[in-house]
Design goal:
mainly beta; 2 helices
Length: about 300
């Protein structure tokens, strides 16, 4: 496992040029990744003149490398050093012979201040909910309470197909929407949620928009989970159900209306009230609080305590 050792703010910069012409190369993918792996820890693309900037909240250790790649050029990797923050990189043209071409959506795309993550590129068979996949995306953090941060900053809005359906209680969605129903996750890095202030007040806070697959739009989709355990005493024909856990969610996301209904019940001590937590202020004040308490809707009997 490769990590970044947190110490101080670091900015890596440099320029990528064609080794033959000396011209700056635009669109080169610059990533930080483990020396022995493909996991992307940080990324950017070169500008029109070939320059790039990468701002980090950590000093990279020796187990990570700078990786430069562009179609038509040989890949180049440079071991990261604590003593080097400026890089001059020359890429050599390389012809690529394609035998079988498989077209796949890119894992990460950027347009302006919006970064789009392809969910299928980060998901595997063990991932069930959207929250499971969010935790794997570069720059994303998901706390035990369900709060989402991007590059260390808490999101100020959570949208589903452009609609603010749940306000600050978005963990209801991230924990109940199946990752297979989501096409991409968009991160708007400088999001001003108040439209009237877009041109007057600059925001450095990120927001997230969930883009669903076409197959999950305008129809009911859902998940079902159930389990239990029985105790059968000697002489009894049928056992007694001692423990159970059941979960069901039904969702419908259309252009003009959205609905998300969840039902959860158990007697094994799993707390289901956390999904109702308000993770950011709905009124833009930054003041956290609950307008309702999910525990008012949950029945806990003494034998479950």
């Amino acid at each position: 496992m490769s990590t970044l050792t947190y110490a101080q703010q670091v900015t890596l910069s440099g320029k990528v040029e064609d080794a033959y012409t000396g011209n700056g190369l635009q669109g080169v993918m610059v990533t930080i990744r483990p020396a022995a792996g493909n996991r992307i820890l940080k990324f950017t693309k070169t500008q029109a003149d070939g320059s790039f900037l990468l701002s980090l909240n950590a000093i990279p250790d020796g187990r990570n490398v700078l990786h430069f790649s562009m179609m038509g050029y040989a890949v180049k990797t440079i071991p990261l050093s604590k003593d080097t923050t400026v890089y001059h990189v020359l890429l050599t043209e390389q012809a690529t012979k394609l035998k079988d071409v498989v077209v796949k959506a890119p894992s990460i795309r950027q347009r302006g201040d919006t970064i789009s993550y392809n969910v299928a590129s980060f998901a595997d068979a063990n991932d069930k909910s959207l929250a499971d996949v969010l935790k794997k995306m570069p720059g994303m953090e998901v706390s035990d309470k369900g709060e989402i941060k991007y590059n260390g900053k808490a999101i100020n809005k959570f949208y589903i197909e452009g609609h603010d359906m749940l306000g600050g209680r978005y963990s209801i969605a991230t924990n109940n929407i199946h990752q297979k129903d989501v096409g991409s996750v968009e991160v708007m890095t400088n999001h001003q949620p108040i439209k009237a202030l877009e041109d007057m007040s600059f925001s450095q806070d990120p927001a997230i928009n969930i883009k669903l697959k076409e197959s999950a739009k305008s129809r009911l989709v859902g998940t079902l989970k159930a389990g239990g355990g029985m105790e059968q005493k000697k002489g009894e024909k049928f056992g007694k159900l001692n423990v159970w856990e059941g979960e069901m969610s039904l969702m419908r996301f259309a252009k003009k209306a959205q609905s998300l209904n969840t039902f959860k019940s158990n007697n094994i001590g799993t707390d289901v009230t956390g999904e109702g937590n308000l993770l950011f202020s709905d009124d833009g004040t930054g003041v956290m609080g609950n307008s309702y308490n999910l525990k008012d809707y949950v029945n806990v009997t003494p034998d479950q305590l």
